[in-house]
Amino acid sequence: MKFPPQHKYRFVTLAIASLLIILLGIIPLRVAIAHYQAPQPQAILTLGGGIEREKFTAQFAQLYPQLEIWVSSGIPTNQARSIFQQAGISNTRVHIDRRAVDTVTNFTSLISEFQQRYIKHVYLITSDFHMPRAKAIATIIFGSQGIIFTPVSIPSNHPPESQLRILRDSTRAVLWFFTRRTGASFHSR
């Protein structure tokens, strides 16, 4: 028995809708559990993208001396370490991770590290213009893994990023959720 073409489209639409419902159902549940387990941030995550982010993080970290710091990509390692040392922050607290090539991989590259350390809640630091995209990606990638974030924006004079960029990277985050591939090779930062 052969199905007419409109039935095939209905099936595909139903399958896609079902996957999205599963995704949308899992994330809020995992976020709620993480919030219960770790109501306060347990670490600081800074998304690289300019020296002002590392400088801000060094000052911010002085307020939370018990928290370890992760910087995902960003300025050269020696320069970043110097900024943290000048702020009186021990090298043992600072983890500089160079695996990320874009904002989506800022999150995907650190998941296993955070899970190994039982980190369920992080301060997420990035520039104000970049924060909407970072929050969208973090909600999908971190949320799906039971990690929550508290955003901390750094003021800047840059215009906000386009909704298209946010949509593109949110789509890549959903792709990662289902395939563990980010599509990083298809675009530039």
UniProtKB/TrEMBL annotation:
Record-linked Gene3D superfamilies: HUPs
Domain of life, source organism: Bacteria
Domain DUF218 span(s) in chain numbering: 42-156
Pfam families (alphabetical): DUF218
InterPro entries assigned: Cell_Envelope_Assoc, DUF218, Rossmann-like_a/b/a_fold
Residue ranges the record marks as coiled coil: none
Gene Ontology CC annotations of this record: plasma membrane
Protein's recorded name: DUF218 domain-containing protein
Organism: Chroogloeocystis siderophila 5.2 s.c.1
Organism placement in taxonomy: Bacteria, Bacillati, Cyanobacteriota, Cyanophyceae, Oscillatoriophycideae
